[in-house]
Amino acid sequence: MFELLGLSEYYPNKLGREEVYTLSQYSLSNTTSQATQDLPFYFLANLLALNYQARWLKVEYQREESDDDDDIWNEDESNIEPTTQQVHPLDVIIATLLCCHPIIHQDLVVKLWECKLAIPLVVQESQEHPPKFFLWAMRALVMRWKRTQGQELRSEERAIADYPMQTISFIRLDRSEISKSALLNTVIFGSNPHDVFFHRDSEGSNHYRQLAEGSIELAWHLPEGDFLTNTGTQNNFQLDNITAFANLRGDARQYPQQLELIKHISSYIFLFVSAKELQSSVSIIKKFLSAGKAVILLLTNKSIEPIDNQSIKDWIENFKTENKLKQISFIKLSGKSIPEIREKIRQQLTRLNPIIDKPEISLESLAEIMSQEGMDIDEYDDDCQQGIQQANKILEIVRQYPPDERKAKLLPLQNKLWKDWADADKEMVRQEYNTQEEDSGKYYRRHNSIKKNSRQQQLDIIQSSQLSQVVRDFITGLSQNSKNIRKYFIKQLQLELDNLSRSILSDLNSAYTNKINQLTTHDKSLDLKNSDQHQKIHRELAEIDKQIIAQSLGLENLLREIGQIYLAIGTSNSQDLTPLLRELYKSLPQLVAELLMSGYQLEIIDGEVSCLPWEWVEAVLQQFIQLLKTQGLQNPRIFVLSATGIQSSGKSTLLNAMFGLSFNVSVGRCTKGISLQTVKLDENLRNKFHIDYIFVLDTEGIKSSEHSSHSGLEHDNELSTFVIGLSNLCLIKISGENSIYLQDTLPISLEAFMRMPEIVLKPQIKIIHRNIEVCSSEKLNKQNLILTNKLDEYTKIACENENRSLQSFNEVINFNINQDVHYLGGLYNGTSSLSPISKSYIQDIHNLKNKLFGNLDITHIYNINTFLRTIRILWNYIKNDQFIYSFRNVIEVKCQIEIDDFLNKAIQKFEHETCDLLRITYLEISKSSYTASNSMILDKSEKRIFDFLNNLWLKENSKLDLFFEDLKARYGRSFKQQKLISSQKLDDLRERLKRESRWKTKKYQENYHHDLILDKDSSLFHQNLIDEIIKFTTREKEFLCNLSHRELRQKFDISWDNWIEKISENISWSFTIETDIEYILRHQYSLLYKTIIVRKGNKNFRDCQLQSFYSRRAYYSYFSRSIASDMVFRNETYIHKVIQSLRDDLLKSLRADLYHREKELQRYESSYLNVFLSQVNSYFEKTSMSLEKEGVILTKECRADLFIILCGYAIRKLENIDFLWRESLKPIIKLKQEKERYWLFFLKNR
CB under 8 Å, gap of 24 or more: what pairs does 202-206 form? Predict the structure, then answer.
């Protein structure tokens, strides 16, 4: 059989991931295989694609020409030898299972049940081999069903291998006239059954079954709760709890060990037997009855003859003396239809239910029993046991901690320390929470210090051997085991960690779902959108989400801790590390790269802290490159495919079905952040498509806009932009016909790409509608046209926002409405938990995959190093440019820009008018005498300024009302929240200016009076110095008369320093010019300020030198590619010259103005900065508009860098001028300047 199927080289257990998961012709084939040796690989490809018709394995068979069709009536079918055309599909499945590595067994079992196909539990390879019991294979199987708890319907999710349940078994003696497996399907599923169990009438079936004989297959009935019970005639069958159905293939008498298993596991045993075989069943049935089982005999005779009735009577006599007849039932099949038989079987289950004990036994316990009966348990393999034991050692430690403390105690590097690092990494450039108390450079350095401190604390934990035993054992398990043991170790650990989390997350997930439903109810009223109740639900959701994160512990968390170990060690000088840590640093990326190659995921974006661990991702993928080189694959070409969309739209399911992957799809273990899995192409496909690997990215589900908080919205927009920009092709999954998500999110990502001048991106997207019927596609075609127009409209708005030429959506993101919109039917055939995945859904995915490869664009194929570079650049832009991601759509962006422009003009008006009023006050103070009372002046000034600000506030608020009415008229939507915020900003501005004007007036008065005091004290200091000289010369007169002129001078100089020190006083005034300039930029040029922070980094403005600004390519872009080509053809020197002249002209004007201020020694006033910055901005706008006429746009980087160097120069000069002005006012300076005059006076009086 193995030779026929081309599997000899793989037997036993040698078919590994490389052979099973490599993308091949079988994955893309539209026809069934025509060669027998292709059947196993065709089956695997279709099963991994979740195609429940994967068992329909049929090879066309043609008779020789000499055969005559009529000869079949003369042939004895039992004597026909199987040929290569007559392999039974179940034999193909069993043979493939026996050839696959046990790790692959788990994958196949999961895929079989996702297709709702029966799963082999026991296989009788041959009479020479003991039956093989696949306990390890069953470990990965998780089932979900519904149960009622009081009045609430709850979901249950459990791993099956260790879950005790009752079992109903079906066996037969000899051949049956009616198909046992077909009837079993109807018992479980009703009158229109899905073929869970393959049967004689299934597609591809034949009479030549070999390997499948003696196998026991399992399927399960999953309860759906009282609320979902179907009381119709088709299928009203309900069991209280999950129930297994076991089906023994072949004549049960030939398989005594299998019968022992049936006896141990079963509550009810249905025996298909003919009347003539009844007597041979007596010993078997007695064993069942003695074990307390109920036995239902189904007499398979087409008709019951008198002799058959006598056989039945004789058979009954065997059990009368043992008083076991109440455990036995008969069902005569003759003359009954399938529905009648089905109902009879269900009636017997109901009748026998109170009579017998219904043992519940888990597969794990059953395996222990059957091992003693001589069965070969796959899990008892030595390598498997070693891997399991090592994993269980870790799990024992984990279980010792309360669920909400496990991650914090066992994984200390990734909780607060990693979160602090990630938050500081963003905040140092975004400065979202910065106040005026710190300048941006100092704020940047403080948060950079937080990052360093977090890493140092992580390093301290590592160096002081405080890593938990869990982490140490995990690293040991990855690094010191043989390759085979390591496979079992990592798989067992993954499964059991998921089981632990699953058991504690059920209630939290239910609570989360309930809160989402409450949001949906509240959001039906727009007015409630910002209500207290709405905000309360969001807070509760955030709290539940926090608990889910805290209590969810999986393999990804252990791998994340390894990443943090690597990053922490990487910050230390290698000379300060022990040899053990240096070796650990080198080995960790390779260990995880090997896992990536083995099918495990690499986390690109950590979903819990929304951060890219860049150095770690780079190190792992560099090691991945090295591993590929050992396989002879140099510089692999990769195609990056991703999927994104609203939560629960089926992104992960889509990717899993396309490539046989294992992204999380359960409610409790869904994808967080962005994860990567790799798909290798076989040699034929590599040569055909010119790519070696597909890098598949799965993303965290995007929250719908109505369910998203502000921070959640920002997070979702960042993720969407990152994954679309990183991909060669991004599949955007939409549930049903709702395209609002597309209209909102895509243009946000598009505008974000426009704000990235240093990276050339033109990603492609495909829109995938799910749950769409064929009749809806015509309706959707109209909607697609509307969507295209809307995307183009929003693209134009985004271009206006970014001062770009008006482009179509397709010019930025590759999208063709006629080619890139696809429709998928519903995922399941029906709503029951027993429903299989729809064949049409799978076929639609298969067609999509073929179209994807048929239209593959190889002009932008990555290599891994290019992929890494794109990751880094994209993330830096997203991390640095917070502004765009905080909006729901580009209309909000445009409106916010208009709102900011309105407010900036209002602010400048408030500031300018207030400065004028302050000048009047300063003049009044300067005219007053020192002895005069100034309280009246201060009171009068305060009233004048306050009255003016109140009146101006009323006027600007009226303008604000008109402004928002105009916005509403133009964009057809309300901006209530933005209006409230804007009004509050005006109010805050008014109150701030009141406080500042009061403080400035008082400060000016103090400074002015201090100047008067200094002037008065100048004459006093002069007289004091004269007195000191007279006193000294009088006291030392005789001594001084005997000194030479040179000695007198020396004596005078020494005495001078003492006199000056005696009469001096320390006068210190401080002005915060840099803080003032940052305040103005932050409040009046807020969008530009974000870019300035990023561009200058940790520097202070005063440290930014003029020479750092020189014309470069990042300072300009073109309206379109055609203009770009034309400008390249022409000399770009002109553009560089204009930019350089812009800098020089502004600098010349600034220098002239500052020279005048220095010459006049003018006092520093912050109002000067407003004027200066306004002039810079106006001149930049004028130059920019001039260039736009020639198709050239000056970028925000150009504007930011220009502001930085001019502000730096202005700060340095103003600080110097201010210092000179203050020094000029000190009396002591005047005295020092007249030292020689006092020297002459000294000589005269000696």
Answer: 202/55, 202/56, 202/89, 203/53, 203/55, 203/56, 203/58, 204/55, 204/56, 204/57, 204/58, 204/89, 205/88, 205/89, 206/86, 206/88
Report residue 1241's pLDDT band, with 50, 70 and 90 as the boundaries. Answer: confident
- pLDDT at position 7: 95
Q: Please report, for residues 92, 324, 983, the alpha-carbon distance to residue 318 in angstroms, rounded to integers and kept in the order given.
A: 42, 10, 95
**831: helix, strand or coil:** coil
Query: Which pLDDT value is given to residue 739?
Result: 66
Residue burial 401-418, b: 16+ Cβ < 10 Å; e: rest: bebeebbeebbbbbbebb
Is residue 15 helix, strand or coil?
strand
Percent of the chain with pLDDT over 90: 37
DSSP 940-967: HHHHHHHHHHHHHHHHHHHHHHHHHHHH
Of 740, 733, 731, 820, the C-alpha closest to 770 is: 733
The answer to the question of residue 228 being in a domain is yes
In this predicted model, what pLDDT tens digit does every residue of 22-52 receive, in sequence order? 999 888 887 766 688 999 999 999 999 999 9
The answer to whether residue 600 sits within a structural domain is no
- d(CA 187, CA 233) in angstroms, rounded, equals 13
User: pLDDT-based confidence at 282, cuts 50/70/90?
Assistant: very high
Domain count, the chain: 5
The per-type count for the chain, helices as H runs and strands as E runs, is 43, 21
What average pLDDT does the segment 1139-1153 reach? 92
User: Which among 1174, 1181, 1246 has a CA at the least distance from the CA of 1210?
Assistant: 1174
Residue 446: CB atoms within 10 Å:
15
Lowest-pLDDT range of 330-339, 393-402, 826-835: 826-835
CB-CB contact of 60 with 181 (8 Å)? no
Is the distance from CB of 223 to CB of 240 less than 8 angstroms? yes
Q: Please report which helix (H) or strand (E) contains residue 906, including its range.
A: helix 890-927
φ and ψ of 1153, to 5 deg: -65, -45
| pTM greater than 0.90 (yes/no) | no
pLDDT in tens, 810-843: 888 888 888 888 888 888 887 776 778 888 889 9
Q: What is the DSSP letter of 121?
A: E
**Under a CB-based contact definition with an 8 Å cutoff, are residues 254 and 171 in contact?**
no
Check whether 1037 has a pLDDT greater than 80. Answer: no
Q: Are 1005 and 922 in contact (CB under 8 A)?
A: no
Quick one: 184 and 209 in the same domain? yes
Are 973 and 865 in a shared domain?
A: no
SS3 768: strand
User: Mean per-residue pLDDT for 1188-1208?
Assistant: 88
> How far is it, in rounded angstroms, from Cα 921 to Cα 923?
5
821 in helix, strand or coil? strand
Residue owning tokens 């995307």: 791
Give the number of other Cβ atoms within 10 Å of residue 801's Cβ.
21
CA 453 vs. chain centroid, Å, equals: 26
Helix (H) or strand (E) holding 675: strand 673-680
In this structure, the answer to whether residues 1107 and 1075 fall within a common structural domain is yes
CA distance 993 to 892: 29
Lowest mean pLDDT: which of 100-109, 323-332, 464-473, 663-672?
A: 663-672
Return d(Cα 699, Cα 653) in angstroms, integer.
Answer: 12
Single-letter code of the amino acid located at 509: N
Are residues 756 and 847 located together in one domain of the fold?
A: yes
Residue 263 lies inside a defined structural domain of this protein: yes
Q: Would you call 520 helix, strand, or coil by DSSP?
A: helix
Task: Identify the band that residue 420 occupies on the pLDDT scale cut at 50, 70 and 90.
Answer: very high
Mean pLDDT, rounded, for 585-589: 96
Range of the domain at 7: 1-62+80-117
Looking at the DSSP assignment, which residues form a beta bridge with residue 171?
271
* Continuous segment of H or E residues that includes residue 244: strand 243-251
